[in-house]
Design brief:
This protein has 220 residues and is mostly helical. It is built from 5 helices and no strands. Helix 2 packs antiparallel against helix 5, helix 3 runs parallel beside helix 5 and helix 4 packs antiparallel against helix 5.
Length: 220
């Protein structure tokens, strides 16, 4: 729309494109990752709250598996929002050293691996079981095999669906941060290469500068 203006100044956008032509792609990835992380945080938090209320932690399963999954998604949301805010509005388009992103993105996807494993392995959805009707066709919830039937334990299915949705969001966050980590590795390589080139250019300039007075003395 013609009336909408970008929150970024012209000077900020100029610096962004001068320093990294792929900054829009990286910014979009961080925004999407932050959104997925926020959704996953809400899903796992609600699932953990329901598990605390309705179940106890037994045999290594229970609410702690969903609580563990909160670590990478909370970190992803916080890191991406802070990075975007500092990059655009504090540093005004001046980029961070890409090594910061290598550390930050590696920490997120590194934590995501055990979080996904434990969230999947300890998910309450593994206990789901179809109801075993009695001879008259009704479902007796006092019967042992019906303890995890949807007719007798609806909250277990609510928690399981929240866990599955949260795991999907966590996996998407994991994939996005691997892509951002790869970008950061490439940027670090370019940063070092450009630094070496600038060093060589500086040495050549100094050598040329030191030669000029000698040439001038011969001409005079």
């Amino acid at each position: 729309m013609a009336g909408m203006r970008s929150p970024l100044t012209v000077e900020t956008r100029r610096r962004l494109y001068e320093e990294d032509s792929k900054w829009p792609v990286k910014a979009i990835l961080r925004i999407v990752a932050a959104c997925f992380a926020l959704i996953a945080t809400i899903l796992f938090a609600v699932a953990t709250s329901l598990e605390n209320t309705n179940f106890s932690n037994t045999a290594g399963n229970g609410d702690w598996t969903d609580g563990l999954a909160l670590a990478p998604v909370v970190l992803s949301f916080s890191y991406n929002i802070a990075t975007l805010a500092l990059h655009f509005f504090v540093r005004r388009g001046h980029h961070f050293h890409p090594a910061w992103h290598i550390a930050g993105d590696f920490l997120v996807w590194g934590l995501s691996i055990p979080a996904i494993i434990f969230a999947v392995g300890g998910g309450i959805f593994w206990y789901w079981a179809p109801a075993v009707p009695s001879q008259n066709g009704s479902v007796d919830c006092a019967f042992f095999f019906n303890a995890w039937a949807p007719e007798c334990n609806a909250v277990a299915y609510t928690i399981g669906h929240l866990e599955i949705a949260g795991i999907v969001m966590l996996f998407l966050v994991f994939i996005i941060h691997i892509a951002l980590f790869a970008f950061a590795c490439v940027d670090t390589h370019k940063w070092r290469r450009d630094g070496k080139l600038r060093g060589l250019e500086k040495k050549e300039f100094e050598l040329q500068y030191n030669k000029d007075p000698e040439q001038q003395s011969y001409t005079t």
